[in-house]
């Protein structure tokens, strides 16, 4: 036999089985595109410049792992489906005189073809589609985002390596299948009666516990930072639980139903229950895959949509005033700033309203008990821990407070008022070094800010008797610091159209920068545009991954329908012969298929319901605290997903009925 | 009145696109009395299976009528046909047609469950039947765990459990080894003796030699029939062989 024979045979085989192999190769290509995209996003240096990039990178890294694990399971699953379909064909070769090693050679060449096609198209697709999506993203945001897109050589290598390994392993399992089977078995492989699935109570129990732990973590998470870390622990538990329950739990449940004779021997339950037992055995892993994928799609898209939709409110919480300018009172800076505001307002047609001008002192400290300890951390040692534990203290003289407050207050010697952002201060006294004060009142409203939780570190406003007290406190805490003059603060809202407001903000920023670069300035409108690009990026990522997961889901459903179709064809005939009429058979089978396919969606919905708390907490880390909004986004996304899922089901069900008829 | 009456049955298959017509049954008439055991023999392509499918109400004839207990089964509405089949007919097929998703017991219960009989009654009917057929030990097993003979006896049990008026058997020994086949034929004789009417289509002489009457079909028509009378199985076997030889060699019309 010449050397070209086996590759040729392999090609012919693939062509002949195009019905199932084309979707299989598409699956491979899809997985490779998804994996490469993920890993190239993970390796993308441009992302490091994005605020919160550490969390994002963690998410992307775990995403890469999840896609890797998923691809492995998924490709193994589709491969076993294909080889099972083809047992008869392989048995025929064997009977026609091919030895096992020859069959193995054919299988080898088939895998080589599949590998070459999938890797080439997959990696090319990964680069092209990624690039395309990147361009789309830029257009979408009208900005140059920090997400630089480039061809990730390392990512390509890793992707190729991992998928080569997966293909090699699937080939090995196919070899093993052929090696263990004799020709007669191969011939009958497709029609060999399935063993009654065993339900293991241990696995079921394990699944329940695992799911319980996952849900438990999700329900008890406290801080947003914990949420991000623990979320993935919970995800792992939930994934394990889902697999265990789908494979074992479902069958255990059906067997309990079967034991109940009065329930089981009803014509509508009889066929459904026993049919479901078999369907679950063959489909459990696939359905668990669909369930987990659907959950991922829902969580990713819900969170990113919430972020995108909620960002204006989030910014509003942070920016009590449209603009603030806080600077040191040196020279005539304040006068220059006032002049610039007025001039720019005239130029851009924007009015500044609700303006508050005041003097204030600022320091950072660590609160221990009721003691404010000086912040002596060197600049290069300022890490996440520093930013989450420090307290920003704003000191305001009573006179200035009374100017802006609707309810004027009075203070005695060594008395203060406090407004604490987030949790209450809740103590009667406070101390700055040797200076001790008693808290006269803890304010619940404050003209400059609101009570909404400040997530990075703490902020509090303390109203003291006069400027002298502020100087005392600063001297006490930072005796070496010579620059203790009071700051001037300007807080005001803008009136006009949005574009003019943005133009005003940017123009004032530029002028203030010219007056003194040390002056702090912030504008709701400038920040909003910046954050739009960031959350737009998140949304893009979320929808991108969501779509990929969704495509995988569609493919799994397609494979399931095809395999169900082949198997049900015979069963369909027998039942008619035994005395079930056509519509009845169609109804029963239709019902089972419906149950099988909507079980994962139901599972995913439950997962999302339990994940909701963690999602809300994680979003709180991005300063989105509006739970109602997150809830609405999640519900809407879930509904839309259910609709698409139903459409996919309906479309593939047609393929199924074509086979059965 | 006869239990089953077949009057000038005709079936013509028309190919879907062409005008090509194949006459499977040209003019078949016969009747089956209550308690009879009738075998229908013929070569492959003689129209046996077409006839059986029409009797089973799985197929409609192009002409003629079939009366079961006075009801014209050709005229039964599609919506009632399944229930009619379930209540009046029992089937035994060559390839058993057991559902591998059901245990042996549940396979036998299937027609009863479809007629919504309570579990107690099903169980009451199953006990003596499974004992008689020698399958009481394998009831909890699954079709892929048992032998061909056991599968066919299961199928017989499934056919009998509804107490049908007529058992229709299509090559019941076709997929069995000779021992299992003999065993099954013995069972058929026994249930026939107990009063069950059986109509069996076969081309196995051994199978047909157990029947009380054998009809021969050739080219869609009834060619001949043999009554057992007082013959034993061996004599019956001889007679059938001879008839078949005549059928195969001299039976061509117009010669």
Radius of gyration of chain B: 19 Å
Regions of chain A with pLDDT < 50 over 5+ consecutive residues? Answer: 189-193
Contiguous helical run count of chain A: 19
Major sheet characteristics of chain A: 7 strands, mixed, barrel
Give a short account of the largest sheet of chain B: 6 strands, mixed
β-strand percent of chain B reads 25-35%
**Biggest interface and its residues per chain?**
A-B, 27 and 33 residues
On the 0-100 scale, what is the average pLDDT of chain A? 80
Q: Helix and strand string of chain B, N-terminal first?
A: EEEHEEHEHHHEHEHEEH
> Could you give the count of β-strands of chain A?
10
Question: Care to describe what's here?
Answer:
The complex is a heterodimer of chains A (661) and B (255). By secondary structure, chain A is α+β, with helices and mostly antiparallel strands. Chain A has helices at residues 5-16, 18-42, 53-85, 87-95, 100-141, 153-180, 183-188, 201-220, 224-259, 261-264, 267-318, 333-348, 384-389, 398-404, 467-477, 498-515, 524-578, 582-621, 627-660, and strands at residues 323-328, 351-368, 371-374, 391-397, 415-420, 429-432, 435-442, 458-464, 487-495, 520-523. A seven-stranded mixed beta barrel of chain A has the order 2-3-6-7-5-8-4. In chain A, helix 3 packs parallel to helix 6 (153-180), helix 11 (267-318) packs antiparallel against helix 17 (524-578) and helix 11 packs antiparallel against helix 19. Chain B is α/β, with parallel strands linked by helices and 255 residues long. Helices cover 37% and strands 25% of the residues of chain B. Chain B has helices at residues 48-55, 78-88, 104-114, 119-133, 148-160, 178-193, 205-208, 233-249; strands spanning 4-14, 21-32, 37-41, 63-68, 71-72, 89-92, 166-170, 197-202, 213-218, 221-227. In chain B, the strands form two sheets. Chain B has a six-stranded mixed sheet, sandwiched between helices. A four-stranded antiparallel sheet of chain B has the order 2-1-4-5, covered by helices on one side. Chain A binds chain B through residues 192-196, 261-262, 265-267, 270, 274-275, 277-278, 571, 573-582, 584, and chain B through 56, 58, 78-79, 81-83, 85-86, 91, 93, 97-102, 106, 109-111, 113-116, 118-119, 122, 142-145, 158.
């Amino acid at each position: 036999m010449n050397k070209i024979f086996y590759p040729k045979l392999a090609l012919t085989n693939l062509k002949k089985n195009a019905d199932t192999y084309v979707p299989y190769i598409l699956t491979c290509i899809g997985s490779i595109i998804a994996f490469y995209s993920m890993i190239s996003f993970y390796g993308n240096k441009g992302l490091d410049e994005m605020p919160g990039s550490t969390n994002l990178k963690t998410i992307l890294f775990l995403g890469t792992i999840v896609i890797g694990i998923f691809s492995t399971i998924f490709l193994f699953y589709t491969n076993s489906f294909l080889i099972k379909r083809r047992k008869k064909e392989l048995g025929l070769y064997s009977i026609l005189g091919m030895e096992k090693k020859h069959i193995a050679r054919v299988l080898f060449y088939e895998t080589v073809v599949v590998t070459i096609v999938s890797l080439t198209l997959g990696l090319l697709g990964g680069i092209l589609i990624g690039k395309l999506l990147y361009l789309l993203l830029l257009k979408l945001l009208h900005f140059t985002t920090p997400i630089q897109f480039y061809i990730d050589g390392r990512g390509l290598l890793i992707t190729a390596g991992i998928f080569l390994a997966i293909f090699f392993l699937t080939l090995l399992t196919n070899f093993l299948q052929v090696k263990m089977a004799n020709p007669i078995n191969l011939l009958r492989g497709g029609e060999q009666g399935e063993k009654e699935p065993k339900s293991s109570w241990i696995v079921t129990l394990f699944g329940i516990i695992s799911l319980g732990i996952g849900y438990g973590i999700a329900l008890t998470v406290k801080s947003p930072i914990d949420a991000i870390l623990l979320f993935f622990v919970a995800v792992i538990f939930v994934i394990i639980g889902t697999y265990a329950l789908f494979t074992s739990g479902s069958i255990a449940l059906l067997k309990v139903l079967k034991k109940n004779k009065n329930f089981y021997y009803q014509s509508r339950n009889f066929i459904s229950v026993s049919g479901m037992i078999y369907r679950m055995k063959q489909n459990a892993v696939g359905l668990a895959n669909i369930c987990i994928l659907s959950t991922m799609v829902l969580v990713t898209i819900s969170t990113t949509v919430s972020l995108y939709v909620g960002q204006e409110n989030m910014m509003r919480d942070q920016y009590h005033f449209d603009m603030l300018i806080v600077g040191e009172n040196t020279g005539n800076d304040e006068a220059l700033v006032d002049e610039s505001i007025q001039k720019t307002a005239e130029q851009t047609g924007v009015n500044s309203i609700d303006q508050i001008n005041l003097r204030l002192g600022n320091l950072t400290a660590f609160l221990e008990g009721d003691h404010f300890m000086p912040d002596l951390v060197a600049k290069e040692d300022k890490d996440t821990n520093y930013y989450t534990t420090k307290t920003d203290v704003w000191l305001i003289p009573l006179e200035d407070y009374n100017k802006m407050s609707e309810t004027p207050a009075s203070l005695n010697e060594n008395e203060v008022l406090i407004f604490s952002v987030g949790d209450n201060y809740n103590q009667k006294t406070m101390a700055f070094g040797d200076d001790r004060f008693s808290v006269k009142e803890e304010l619940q409203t404050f003209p400059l800010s609101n009570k909404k939780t400040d997530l990075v570190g703490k902020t509090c406003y303390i109203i003291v008797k006069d400027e002298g007290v502020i100087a005392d406190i600063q001297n006490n805490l930072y005796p070496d610091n010579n620059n203790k003059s009071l700051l001037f603060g300007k807080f005001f809202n803008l009136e006009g159209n949005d574009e003019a407001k943005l133009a005003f903000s940017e123009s004032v920023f530029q002028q203030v920068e010219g007056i003194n670069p040390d002056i702090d300035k912030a504008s709701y409108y400038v920040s909003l545009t910046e954050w739009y690009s960031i959350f737009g990026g998140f949304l893009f990522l979320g929808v991108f991954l969501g779509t990929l997961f969704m495509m995988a889901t569609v493919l799994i459903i397609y494979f399931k329908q095809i395999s169900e179709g082949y198997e049900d064809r015979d069963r369909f005939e027998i039942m008619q012969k035994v005395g079930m009429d056509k519509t009845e058979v169609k109804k029963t089978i239709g019902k089972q298929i419906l149950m099988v396919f909507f079980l994962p969606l139901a599972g995913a919905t439950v997962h999302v319901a339990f994940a909701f708390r963690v999602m809300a907490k994680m979003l709180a880390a991005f300063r989105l605290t509006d739970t109602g909004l997150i809830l609405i986004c999640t519900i809407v996304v879930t509904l839309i997903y259910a609709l698409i899922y139903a459409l996919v089901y309906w479309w593939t069900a047609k393929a199924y009925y074509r086979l059965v008829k | 009145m006869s239990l089953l009456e077949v009057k000038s049955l005709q079936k013509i298959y028309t190919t879907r696109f062409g005008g090509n017509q194949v006459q499977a049954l040209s003019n078949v008439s016969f009747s089956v009395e209550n308690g009879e055991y009738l075998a229908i023999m013929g070569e492959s392509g003689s129209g046996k299976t077409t006839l059986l499918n029409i009797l089973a109400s799985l197929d409609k004839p192009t002409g003629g009528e079939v009366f079961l207990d006075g009801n014209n089964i050709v005229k039964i509405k599609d919506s009632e046909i399944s229930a009619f089949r379930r209540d009046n007919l029992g089937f035994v097929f060559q390839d058993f047609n057991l559902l591998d998703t059901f245990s042996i017991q549940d396979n036998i219960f299937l027609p009863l469950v479809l007629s919504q009989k309570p579990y107690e009654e099903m169980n009451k009917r199953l006990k003596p039947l499974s004992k008689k057929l020698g399958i009481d030990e394998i009831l909890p097993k699954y079709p892929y765990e048992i032998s061909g003979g056991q599968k066919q006896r299961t199928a017989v049990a499934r056919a009998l459990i509804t107490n049908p008026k007529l058992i229709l058997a299509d090559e019941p020994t076709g997929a069995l080894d000779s021992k299992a086949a003999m065993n099954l034929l013995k069972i058929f004789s026994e249930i026939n003796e107990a009063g069950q009417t059986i109509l069996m289509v076969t081309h196995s002489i051994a199978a047909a030699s157990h029947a009380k009457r054998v009809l021969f079909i050739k080219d869609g028509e009834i060619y001949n029939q043999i009554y057992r009378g007082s013959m034993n199985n061996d004599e019956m076997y001889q007679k059938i062989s001879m008839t078949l030889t005549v059928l195969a060699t001299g039976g061509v019309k117009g010669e």
